[in-house]
């Protein structure tokens, strides 16, 4: 009987020791995977890689879906839960929620607050803090056309087009058809382009449209451009002033599915100090390294994050 009692005590002690040892083991949480996407343009690839590098640096496993597609494709994917996070632009809130006041999107703070509220209510998406850089739609024209014809603003361009002068612009399907893009310029400044005056290129990469203008591809002498494009001077192009303020403010911000942010709330704190450093000049310089110098978006993102002290 005594031997049985002793055996039971020894077994109990052994079990307790195993559980105690197990309790002292430090298990490391596996974070992710987080599916990071971006639009197909130069800056989209840059910002998508910035997000990936920051998350990886904090121990997240990430899945690379950068250069996923144009706005409508990426937008549908995040709403459907096919991707978790990507960089979007505040001014696109007027496109996503077309029944909202147009003027709201021309105000930096008001536009951000409204799109953040609506996307959370309707789509369970969270807009994190945006970068202080306005990457708005623009029209750039060759310097050798702008100079001799004294083209500085979109009013000047309208007079130039309406006089029958030679003009052809390279742009994406999105730029040509979205009501807040080229059609808004046409309506406000009083000009209209025929199909023969447009070269529609796939995707939304301004590096491609601007190179077409610079080279005179298919008679093109102007291009769809963005405010943060850094390659314009090197390509011999100038942006025409939107003096009537047609375009909304387009500040880039990470948007993330609420379900993912609820699980990993630290993502907001990781990305806020990074995006706050991406001002207009910084983005222009980084974009130029990709579009002009031929560096990869991944390498440019990593180099900048190291220089900015954001990667360990």
Question: Care to describe what's here?
Answer:
The chain has 312 residues and is an alpha/beta fold. It is built from 14 helices and ten strands. The strands form three sheets. The protein has a five-stranded mixed beta sheet. The chain has a three-stranded antiparallel beta sheet with strand order 3-10-4. Strands 1-2 form a two-stranded parallel ribbon. Strand 1 (31-39), helix 2 and strand 2 (60-69) form a beta-alpha-beta unit. Helix 2 crosses helix 14. It starts with a helix and ends in a 5-residue tail after the last helix. Residues 5-27 have low confidence and may be disordered.
Summarize the structure.
The protein has 312 residues and is an alpha/beta fold.
């Amino acid at each position: 009987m005594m031997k049985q009692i002793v055996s039971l005590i020894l077994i109990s002690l052994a079990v307790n020791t195993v559980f105690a040892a197990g309790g002292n083991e430090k298990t490391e949480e596996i974070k992710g995977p987080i599916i990071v996407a971006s639009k197909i343009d130069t800056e989209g690839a840059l910002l998508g890689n910035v997000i990936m590098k920051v998350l990886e640096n904090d121990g997240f496993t990430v899945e690379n879906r950068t250069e996923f597609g144009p706005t409508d494709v990426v937008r549908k994917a995040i709403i459907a839960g096919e991707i978790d996070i990507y960089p979007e632009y505040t001014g696109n809130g007027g496109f996503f929620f077309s029944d909202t006041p147009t003027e709201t999107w021309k105000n930096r703070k008001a536009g951000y607050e409204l799109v953040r509220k609506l996307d959370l209510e309707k789509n369970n998406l969270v807009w994190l803090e945006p970068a202080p850089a306005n990457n708005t739609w623009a029209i750039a024209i060759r310097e050798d056309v702008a100079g001799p014809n004294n083209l500085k603003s979109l009013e000047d361009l309208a007079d130039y087009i309406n006089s029958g002068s030679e003009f052809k612009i390279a742009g994406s399907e999105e730029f040509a058809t979205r009501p807040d893009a080229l059609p808004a310029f046409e309506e406000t400044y009083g000009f209209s382009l025929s199909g023969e005056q447009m070269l529609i290129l796939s995707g939304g990469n301004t590096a491609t449209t601007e190179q077409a203008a610079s080279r005179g591809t298919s008679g093109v002498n102007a291009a769809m451009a963005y405010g943060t494009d850094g390659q314009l001077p090197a390509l011999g192009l100038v942006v025409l002033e939107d003096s009537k303020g047609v375009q909304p403010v387009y500040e880039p911000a990470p948007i993330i599915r609420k379900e993912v942010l609820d699980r990993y709330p630290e993502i907001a704190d990781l990305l806020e100090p990074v995006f706050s450093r991406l001002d207009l000049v910084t983005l222009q310089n980084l974009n130029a390294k990709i579009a002009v110098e031929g560096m990869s978006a991944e390498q440019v993102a990593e180099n900048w994050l190291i220089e900015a002290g954001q990667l360990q």
